[in-house]
C-alpha cells in the first residue's frame, strides 16, 4: 500500500538550524584535521586513537573498544594503528585474557606525541567551539549533543567512555 501522506517538512527556522548543523558537521572535522596535520603531522583520527589510548588504564585498550571510542571501523582502525606502529607510537599484542582479541598500547613515544600535540589541539577546539559561546550556550550544546546522540544511538555510550 502506497503512503500518500504529505511529508512533514521542516519549517523555516528548523531548516536554518539544520543547515547550520550540517555546516558544522562538515567543516569542523576538516578544520581540526588541518590544525593537527600542520602542527603535529598527524590526522584528527590518528590523534583520537592516541588520545583514547592515553586516557585508558595502562594506556591499553582492545582494538574493538578503541574502534568504538574513535567511531571508526575495525578495518580503518587497523590500518591507522599499523601506521602508528611504524612511527613507534602504538604497539599491538594479543590479549592475554582472551587471545581472540588484540590489544593496542600507547608507547612512551606515543605518550610524548600526545603530550606535545594536545595543547595546540585543545587551543584549536577552544577557538572554534568554546570561545564563540557563552557558558550557558556551552551547557546547551552539551545537552543538545547528548540528546541527538541518544536519538541516533539509544543504547550507546559517549565515545569517551572506556567501559564498553
TrEMBL record:
Domain HTH marR-type: start-end pairs: 14-150
Domain of life of the source: Bacteria
Entry-linked Gene3D superfamilies: Winged helix-like DNA-binding domain superfamily/Winged helix DNA-binding domain
PANTHER family: MARR FAMILY REGULATORY PROTEIN (PTHR33164:SF99), TRANSCRIPTIONAL REGULATOR, MARR FAMILY (PTHR33164)
Protein name: MarR family winged helix-turn-helix transcriptional regulator
Amino acid at each position: 500500500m502506497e503512503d500518500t501522506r504529505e511529508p512533514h517538512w521542516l519549517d523555516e527556522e528548523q531548516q536554518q538550524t539544520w543547515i547550520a548543523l550540517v555546516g558544522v558537521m562538515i567543516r569542523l572535522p576538516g578544520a581540526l584535521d588541518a590544525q593537527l596535520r600542520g602542527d603535529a603531522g598527524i590526522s584528527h583520527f590518528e590523534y583520537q586513537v592516541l588520545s583514547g589510548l592515553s586516557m585508558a588504564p595502562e594506556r591499553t585498550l582492545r582494538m574493538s573498544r578503541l574502534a568504538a571510542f574513535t567511531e571508526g571501523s575495525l578495518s580503518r582502525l587497523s590500518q591507522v594503528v599499523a601506521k602508528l606502529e611504524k612511527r613507534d607510537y602504538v604497539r599491538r599484542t594479543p590479549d592475554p585474557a582472551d587471545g581472540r582479541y588484540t590489544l593496542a598500547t600507547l608507547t612512551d613515544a606515543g605518550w610524548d606525541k600526545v603530550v606535545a600535540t594536545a595543547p595546540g589541539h585543545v587551543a584549536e577546539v577552544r577557538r572554534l567551539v568554546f570561545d564563540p559561546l557563552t557558558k550557558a550556550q556551552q551547557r546547551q550544546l552539551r545537552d543538545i549533543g547528548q540528546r541527538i546522540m541518544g536519538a541516533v544511538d539509544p543504547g550507546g555510550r559517549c565515545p569517551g567512555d572506556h567501559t564498553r
